[in-house]
Amino acid sequence: MLSNLQCFLCRFPVISSAILARLQGLRHFVEVARQESFRGAADKLNVAPSAVSKQIKNLEENLGVELFSRARGRAGLELTEAGRVLLFRCASVINELNIAREELDQLQGLQLGHLRLGVNEVVATDLLPGMLRNFNRNHPNLQFTIMVENTPVLLSWMRDGDIDIGLGYNVPPSPDIETLSTLYRRVYLVTAPDHRLATRRKVRLGEIAGEKFIFPDPTLALHQMLHDALERGSISVRNVMTTNSFTLLRQMVQNGMGVSVVIGRFLQNKGENIAFIEIDDPAFVQKPLTCCRLAGRAPTASSVAFAAAVRTLFAQYGG
């Protein structure tokens, strides 16, 4: 049975050594056609004019045709009909070789590059580990730098050139920030497994009145959204803890210290035993998780590949 590589190569005609031997001559031929001069081509290729002339002569002998009309002298060098046909075909070959060069450069970038990511903590603890594991498996020589902070700080780092890609919630529209992919996340009440609301699929915000509550820190956008929603609904809860760590927040919810609210429910690392109950309340709308980079800056090969992986992953989630 043929291997995958053998099956792939079977789709292509056999390349003879004679054709490969002509590649250098074709390179000289294309440059002479561009410059309309042997000397001009020699200067461009940084070789002697006699070397160019010899390459063209050998190519003409191999192909059995005359490629240039030399009757009018050096100033009037022109392609023959055969030369025009060959130049047309060479243009396609050169274009493909240029594309191949770009793809090889990108592959080299992925093999030896350095990917700098800035992410919110929820992303760092829930979504990112699985992504990095898969990405590292495909690109084992790639280096990673991961910075964890809130969205305003991530955007500041991005503008300063400290990170290549940011993954954060509630990224405000800005002409200098390019959105690569967006995932809208639902808002959930999180409780211990034995809480009275743990088995519910949805809950209204008013149903948590009087509950012991663990608040996200005021530096986080969720804090203000939650504070405003409770105030509008005249809902009172008992503040037992405030933290800027969602990992600690969920851990203390699991331990029964109180309930809280989070955006999204990735939890790829099934280390926590907590219940997610969607909050069905007009005070809360789906919040976007955005993958973005600085607009106008040439992206690295590693950041392009990572952004593609993020788009694929986002397509798998629905809230």
UniProtKB/TrEMBL annotation:
PANTHER family: HTH-TYPE TRANSCRIPTIONAL REGULATOR YBHD (PTHR30419), NITROGEN ASSIMILATION TRANSCRIPTIONAL ACTIVATOR-RELATED (PTHR30419:SF8). InterPro entries: HTH-type_LysR_regulators, LysR_HTH_N, LysR_subst-bd, WH-like_DNA-bd_sf, WH_DNA-bd_sf. The keyword Signal does not apply. The keyword Chloroplast does not apply. Belongs to the LysR transcriptional regulatory family. Coiled coil: none annotated. It holds the Pfam family LysR_substrate. Residues 23-80 form the HTH lysR-type domain. The lineage of its organism: Bacteria, Pseudomonadati, Pseudomonadota, Alphaproteobacteria, Rhodobacterales. This is LysR family transcriptional regulator. It comes from the Bacteria. Keywords: DNA-binding, Transcription, Transcription regulation. PROSITE patterns: HTH_LYSR.
